[in-house]
């Protein structure tokens, strides 16, 4: 079979294959999140969303029967529209489109493969999701029943019955991919990542995807995040450095340990950065700890250890440039948000496979990590509010994460500086400093007293 060689730089269509409840949508969205983070503009085209647009409300499983003509017409039309939009997305210059349909028959796959390669000159990769593990399957089914828009208006019993029948209809039509007969590039993912096999997979994007899928395990259940307790530098408005916790920060470390022993599971593990303040924050938590360099705070280069007032005085132009584009601005001899996103990639991939981890991190690093899990737009990341003395809990719900923030009762300074209105390099000092949060100028002696007696 002649393999048409299509350039590595051509866009890629990923088509999912498999029965319902095999974790296709979850895989699609996680993969999209991963690819977007790695600079490949990626979008998921979900057939069932197109189908729902055609039917005011999901009727019943009946439309999935092969012999239901009207139903299969709607399904065909929805799939066609999703493919058309996916192709359009790629033509607009984006790099990956993920087509989340079922494409269960050999003929459908062949047609799509030919269309993509021959008519469009795009790359195409099929990903087949198989799940033989009954326990996983049941978990997926429960998740669909709870979170799918199709079943909002049905009772639990009706929904279970409906989904079972829908599965039967599909099962009757399903032809698993057979590598000896079908000349397509595909990856088979069994039991949500337990086994991954590849067939005729070439290209860098595809290899990266294969690597990601091989590292993927079932979704994490619960992850916790917190910034370190208030540090001596936080209290006096200095950025960066490697200072110790203030007395209030030390109180937070104790309160945090109590809080976690009440709410977290016993097999909790803790990841900190290599800086003193995160290690001190984790000190009282009775759990295994690991210090990870990639979790260190954004390196402010020549501005390490300065207050914003000093930056404005010594480097007004740098300060203004940073305000103009905080995401991309790189401190001289230091880092930008984009830089830390890059160094966080392996940590994020590792974290996706974990459960019951507490990350004790820093403001900029946690903005990036939370932004990743919550699918924030990149430009929003640098201004996300991640306050001190607050525990952020993420719980996986399908492919999305539910977020819960708990402020623990220990006072602290606010370190969140909003973008000022005037970012011009000719702005006045007052305009540059207008959003700087209030802080002490020196460590006041009362910070060292019993924190409960201290008032800000
Ligand atoms: C921070 O300080 C601690 C203790 O003084 C030291 O062990 C660690 O290497 C320092 N880290 C950095 C990155 O400077
Ligand atoms: C910013 O400040 C400068 C100097 O005061 C002024 O000329 C300019 O118009 C201001 N720009 C905005 C957008 O307010
Ligand atoms: C159900 C489904 O997703 N089927 C689609 C698979 O791909 C072919 C080729 O484009 C479509 O025509 C099918 O509708």
Automatic annotation (TrEMBL):
Protein name: 6-phosphofructo-2-kinase domain-containing protein
Source organism of the structure: Eumeta variegata (Bagworm moth)
CDD domains cross-referenced by the UniProt entry: HP_PGM_like
Gene3D superfamilies cross-referenced by the UniProt entry: P-loop containing nucleotide triphosphate hydrolases, Phosphoglycerate mutase-like
Gene Ontology annotations of biological process type: fructose 2,6-bisphosphate metabolic process; fructose metabolic process
UniProt-annotated catalytic positions: 228 (tele-phosphohistidine intermediate), 297 (proton donor/acceptor)
InterPro entries, per database record: 6Pfruct_kin, 6Phosfructo_kin, His_Pase_superF_clade-1, His_PPase_superfam, P-loop_NTPase
Keywords from the named record: ATP-binding, Nucleotide-binding
GO cellular component: cytosol
Keyword set includes Chaperone: no
Residues of the 6-phosphofructo-2-kinase domain: 10-216
GO MF terms, alphabetically ordered: 6-phosphofructo-2-kinase activity; ATP binding; fructose-2,6-bisphosphate 2-phosphatase activity
Family: In the C-terminal section; belongs to the phosphoglycerate mutase family.
Pfam families in UniProt: 6PF2K, His_Phos_1
Positions annotated to bind substrate: 227-234, 277
């Amino acid at each position: 079979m002649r393999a048409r060689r299509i350039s590595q730089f051509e866009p890629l269509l990923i088509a999912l294959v498999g029965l319902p409840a095999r974790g296709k949508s979850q895989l699609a969205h996680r993969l999209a999140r991963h690819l977007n983070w790695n600079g490949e503009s990626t979008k998921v085209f979900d057939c069932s969303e197109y189908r729902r647009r055609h039917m005011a409300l999901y009727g019943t499983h009946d439309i999935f029967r092969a012999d239901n003509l009207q139903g299969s017409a709607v399904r065909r039309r929805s799939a066609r529209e999703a493919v058309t939009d996916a192709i359009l997305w790629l033509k607009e210059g984006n790099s990956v489109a993920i087509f989340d349909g079922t494409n269960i028959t050999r003929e459908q796959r062949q047609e799509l493969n030919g269309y993509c390669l021959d008519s469009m000159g795009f790359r195409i990769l099929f990903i087949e999701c198989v799940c033989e593990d009954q326990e996983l399957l049941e978990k997926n089914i429960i998740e669909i029943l709870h979170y799918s828009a199709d079943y909002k208006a049905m009772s639990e019993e009706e929904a279970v019955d409906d989904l079972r029948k829908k599965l039967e209809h599909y099962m009757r039509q399903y032809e698993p991919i057979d590598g000896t007969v079908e000349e397509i590039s595909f990856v088979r993912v069994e039991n949500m990542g337990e086994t991954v096999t590849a067939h005729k997979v070439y290209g860098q994007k595809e290899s990266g995807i294969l690597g990601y899928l091989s590292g993927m395990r079932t979704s994490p259940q619960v992850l916790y995040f917190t910034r370190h307790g208030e540090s001596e530098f936080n209290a006096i408005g200095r950025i960066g450095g490697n200072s110790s916790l203030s007395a209030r920060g030390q109180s937070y470390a104790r309160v945090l340990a109590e809080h976690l022993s009440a709410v977290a599971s016993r097999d909790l593990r803790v990841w900190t950065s290599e800086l003193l303040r995160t290690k001190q924050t984790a000190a009282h938590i009775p759990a295994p700890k690991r210090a990870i360099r990639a979790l260190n705070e954004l390196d402010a280069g020549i501005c390490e250890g300065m207050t914003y007032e000093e930056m404005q005085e010594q480097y007004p132009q740098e300060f203004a440039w940073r305000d103009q584009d905080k995401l991309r601005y790189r401190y001289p001899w230091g880092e930008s948000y984009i830089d830390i996103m890059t160094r966080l990639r392996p940590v994020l991939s590792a974290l996706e496979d974990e459960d019951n981890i507490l990350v004790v991190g820093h403001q900029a690093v946690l903005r990036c990590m939370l932004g990743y899990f919550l699918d924030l737009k990149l430009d929003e990341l640098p201004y996300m509010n991640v306050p001190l003395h607050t525990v952020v809990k993420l719980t996986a719900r399908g492919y999305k994460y539910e977020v819960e923030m708990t402020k623990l009762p220990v006072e602290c300074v606010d370190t969140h500086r909003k973008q000022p209105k005037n970012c011009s390099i000719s702005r006045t000092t007052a305009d540059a400093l207008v959003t700087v949060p209030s802080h002490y100028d020196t460590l006041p002696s009362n910070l060292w007293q019993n924190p409960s007696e201290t008032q800000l």
